[in-house]
Write a structure and sequence with these properties.
31 strands; 383 residues; 0% helix; 4-stranded antiparallel sheet; mainly beta; Methylamine Dehydrogenase, Chain H
Length: 383
């Protein structure tokens, strides 16, 4: 997933690197992260019908989450049990509008998918608030975290990390002095722990995620300077929510990092730092200096993300369209996901603990969605 921050107050992720969506920047979760990634809405031969899929589904255990066309303008966020389950509206288009043309990833799920944190607009404010819902019962928790704006999420332990601001002055139109905080469920926001802040650079924006095994917390620091998008990358071991950060790429410079996964204390990353077309590197967190990085796959790499305990790499085809291949985390080719020549494939990232994986194929303006069977290496239609 590629990140554009030409407007620091409105971050978007470009997936595939095709569609645009508000932050996720990672999810990276990449949240992770926290940040979860979707694709642009399907174009069909006719008008979209209520209940029709508009973005890539994703799973947590038996729970499958989908964005579906609402009966009114907008998109409902739904959940179902297994591929054959009946979708149930979890967050309606009326409560937290999701644009069918630009899908938002402004929600994040706990590891088991039982809890979902999501944004709603604050009344009479340009800021947003975070609410939490139980995906099993549909009941909303009492937790409400205010004064966020297009921030990031990352679940960890009994709460989640988020990007938040101090309460803004009435009528303020400036977003500055963002901090990374940790909210423990069931406690008031006033007790949230500040994880990272930089008072000397109030215009900087933060994106972050935890690795799937919660061994590491990655922090992406973003800033727009003299028309250029600059990034710095930090990480720390996730043993304490106030642990010390180490630099992965400590100076502000062009080029982002995206987590493919980690193998113990080694992180496998797609980076555009000093490689604008993208390369995949192995970083030993005990020796994270740039000179110690090992290149697993040289340029060009369009996209790479976690996929069922391996990594999924998307590269363009010379004749048009693209191809998705699955590699081991050491860079060895496993298989290529079947797709039609000239088509564009998009695959939803997922960890090795997930039971289901999803993909979409688009050709001639028509997009279709599929459940991916990794054993048979087969795409099965999903609606």
């Amino acid at each position: 997933m590629d990140l554009s921050y030409d407007q620091p107050e409105q971050l978007y992720v470009s997936k595939g690197k095709s569609a645009v969506t508000k932050i996720q920047p990672i999810q990276l979760a990449l949240s992770a992260c926290s940040l979860l990634v979707a694709t642009i809405s399907a174009q069909t031969s006719g008008a979209e019908r209520p209940g029709e899929l508009v973005h890539l589904p994703f799973a947590r255990g038996e729970r499958i989450f989908t964005s579906r066309k609402a009966t009114r303008d907008g998109v409902d966020f739904c959940v179902q049990k297994g591929p054959n389950g009946t979708p149930r509206v979890l967050i309606s288009a009326a409560e937290a509008p999701l644009d069918a043309q630009v899908p938002l990833t402004d929600f994040s799920l706990s590891d088991d998918g039982r809890l979902c944190a999501y944004f709603v607009m604050q009344t009479d404010s340009r800021y947003e608030a975070i609410k939490v819902i139980d995906t099993e019962t549909g009941q909303k928790l009492e937790d409400t975290v205010s004064w966020t704006h297009f921030g990031d999420f990352a679940w960890s332990g009994k709460g989640f990390y988020y990007g938040g601001y101090r309460k803004a002055a009435l009528g303020s139109s400036s977003y500055s002095d963002e901090r990374v905080l940790y909210h423990r469920l069931g406690t008031p926001q006033e007790q949230d722990t500040v994880v990272y802040e930089d008072a000397e650079h109030p215009k900087r924006k933060y994106l972050f995620l935890t690795t799937y095994d919660h061994r590491f917390f990655l922090l992406h620091i973003l800033e727009r300077v003299a028309g250029k998008s600059l990034v710095s990358e930090l990480f720390r071991r996730e043993v304490s929510i106030q642990g010390k950060f180490q630099p992965l790429q400590g100076t502000m410079a062009p080029g982002r990092f995206f987590l493919c996964d980690n193998v113990g204390d080694h992180m496998v990353l797609l980076t555009r730092y000093k490689s604008p077309k993208g390369r995949i590197v192995d970083v030993d967190t005990h020796h994270p200096d740039e000179g110690q990085w090992k290149t697993l796959m040289p340029e060009p790499v369009d996209d790479a993300e976690p996929f069922l305990g391996k990594m999924l790499v998307i590269q363009s085809r010379p004749e048009g369209g693209n191809v998705a291949r699955i590699f081991s985390l050491s860079g060895k080719l496993d298989k290529e996901i079947p797709s039609e020549p000239g088509s564009t494939i998009d695959v939803q990232y997922c960890s090795k603990r997930e039971k289901y994986a999803f993909a979409s194929l688009e050709k001639g303006g028509i997009k279709s969605y599929y459940l991916y069977d990794p054993k048979a290496n087969k795409l099965v239609p999903f609606r």
